[in-house]
Specification:
390 residues; alpha/beta; N Utilization Substance Protein A, Chain:P, domain 4; OB fold (Dihydrolipoamide Acetyltransferase, E2P); GMP Synthetase, Chain A, domain 3; 4 domains; five-stranded mixed beta barrel; four-stranded mixed sheet; 15 strands; 25% strand; rod-shaped
Length: 390
C-alpha cells in the first residue's frame, strides 16, 4: 500500500506541480477527519507518515485510569496491562487504529478531504507560478472570443485579454500564438485570474530584453518608452559601456533584432533614439526623422520650443501630430514646434542668438542639404543608367 501511495504522490507532484509535503499533509488531515467521523472525536489521534517511504500509522493516545468515563480518551488499568504489564495509572498508551475499520461515510469524507487539498494546492501552485511572471512577457494561444474580449491559454491556465488592452486594428484568431504582457495575477476560488495586455508600453521593454542580450545584462538601458499601440513606438536607450553603441545593438545586424520585435507587434513601427541628459539634445533626437535647427528648452517648466526648417515642419509634427506627441511623451516636455519662418516672425532668433552666429549655422545647414541633394541625384542617375544597361 505504501509503495502505491508513494507512486501516486510522485505522479501528482510531477503533473500538478504540488509539493510532496502538501500532499502528505492532506493525507494526514483526511485520516484525522476519518477518525473524527468514526469515533466522534479525534483530539487524541496521532498520524505518523514517513516522507521517504510513505509508510503511515494511525494511533490513539489513551490515558490509563481506574474508572473509564470516556472510552475514546481513556483506558482501564486492566486493559492497559493486557497490552503491557508495565503500564500504571496516569500512563499514556498508544492504541493502533486500523483504517480498514472505518465505515463507508468516514472513508468517503476522507477521500473528499484529500481531493479538496489537491485542488487547493493545485490552485496555489498555479497562482504562485504566474504571480512570479507578473509584469513579464509570456507566450499564449488564442482560445476563443468572449464578447469583445479574448481568452488566451498560457499552458495550464487561461488569461483574459480585454478589449481595452488589445492593439487597435489587430485581428487575433483562435490558435494564433501571441506574446502578451502579464498585467495582474489575482487569486480566486476558481484558480488564478490573469489579466494580460498587447498594448502596454512595457511589452516593448520585455520584447527588447528577450531579443537584445545587452539590455538583459544591463549594458544597455531603456530609459523611456512612448507608444501608440498598433501604429508607432519610440524608445530612448543609453549604454553603460562607451564601446557599445546602444542604438546599433538594439537594431542588430541588418536590423534583425528590431525586426523581430516589429514582427511580433504586427508591423508596428519602432524608432530607437539615443538618450541624452541634455534635454535639448534628447528632444532633437526624439523628433527623428525630422531635422531640427535648434531647441529652446526650459527644464524647470518642462517646456520646449523647437525650430525646424520650413519643409520639415509637417514631418516634425507627424501625421495627425503623432511624431511630436510621442516625442513629448518620451521626453516629458511640452513641445511647441515652429517653422523657421514662424520663428523669425516671432523674433525667437533675435532673442536667443546673435544674427551672425545664426547666419553661420544657416549656411552650414544649407550646405549640408545641398550635399545630400547632390548625393541623391547621383544615386538617381546611377539607377537610370543601370536600367538602360539592362
Amino acid at each position: 500500500m505504501s509503495a502505491e501511495l508513494k507512486e501516486a504522490i510522485e505522479l501528482l507532484e510531477k503533473e500538478k506541480g504540488i509539493s510532496k509535503e502538501a500532499l502528505l499533509e492532506g493525507i494526514e488531515q483526511s485520516l484525522l477527519q476519518a477518525c473524527k467521523n468514526h469515533f466522534g472525536k479525534a483530539d487524541n489521534v496521532v498520524v505518523s507518515i514517513d516522507p521517504e517511504t510513505c509508510d503511515y500509522s494511525v494511533y490513539a493516545e489513551k490515558t490509563v485510569v481506574e474508572e473509564v468515563e470516556d472510552p475514546v480518551l481513556q483506558l482501564s488499568l486492566l486493559q492497559a496491562r493486557m497490552i503491557d504489564d508495565r503500564y500504571d495509572l496516569g500512563d499514556v498508551v498508544k492504541i493502533p487504529i486500523q483504517s480498514r475499520e472505518f465505515g463507508r461515510i468516514a472513508t468517503q469524507n476522507a477521500k473528499n478531504v484529500i481531493l479538496q487539498k489537491i485542488r487547493e494546492e493545485e490552485r496555489r501552485s498555479l497562482y504562485n507560478r504566474y504571480f512570479e511572471r507578473e509584469h513579464d512577457v509570456v507566450t499564449g494561444v488564442v482560445q476563443r472570443a468572449m464578447g469583445k474580449n479574448l481568452s488566451i491559454n498560457l499552458g495550464k491556465v487561461d488569461a483574459l485579454l480585454t478589449e481595452s488592452e488589445m492593439v487597435p486594428g489587430e485581428v487575433l484568431k483562435p490558435r494564433d500564438r501571441v506574446k502578451v504582457y502579464v498585467l495582474e495575477v489575482k487569486d480566486s476560488p476558481k484558480g488564478p485570474r490573469i489579466l494580460v495586455s498587447r498594448s502596454h508600453p512595457e511589452l516593448i521593454r520585455r520584447l527588447f530584453e528577450n531579443e537584445v542580450s545587452e539590455i538583459a545584462d544591463g549594458t544597455i538601458e531603456i530609459m523611456s518608452i512612448a507608444r501608440e499601440a498598433g501604429s508607432r513606438t519610440k524608445i530612448a536607450v543609453r549604454s553603460n559601456d562607451p564601446d557599445v553603441d546602444p542604438v546599433g545593438a538594439c537594431v542588430g545586424l541588418n536590423g534583425i533584432r528590431v525586426n523581430s520585435v516589429v514582427d511580433e507587434l504586427g508591423g508596428e513601427k519602432v524608432d530607437i533614439i539615443n538618450w541624452d541628459e541634455n534635454p535639448a539634445i534628447l528632444i532633437e533626437n526624439a523628433l527623428s526623422p525630422a531635422k531640427v535647427i535648434t531647441v529652446l528648452a526650459d527644464p524647470e517648466d518642462r517646456i520646449a520650443i523647437v525650430i525646424v526648417p520650413d519643409f520639415q515642419l509637417s514631418l516634425a509634427i507627424g501625421k495627425e501630430g503623432q511624431n511630436v506627441r510621442l516625442a513629448a511623451k518620451l521626453t516629458g516636455f511640452k513641445i511647441d514646434i515652429k517653422s523657421e519662418t514662424q520663428a523669425q516672425e516671432a523674433g525667437l532668433f533675435d532673442e536667443y542668438y546673435e544674427d551672425e552666429e545664426y547666419e553661420e549655422e544657416e549656411e552650414e545647414y544649407e550646405e549640408a542639404e545641398e550635399a545630400e541633394d547632390a548625393e541623391e541625384s547621383a544615386d538617381g542617375v546611377d539607377d537610370e543608367d543601370g536600367e538602360e544597361n539592362e
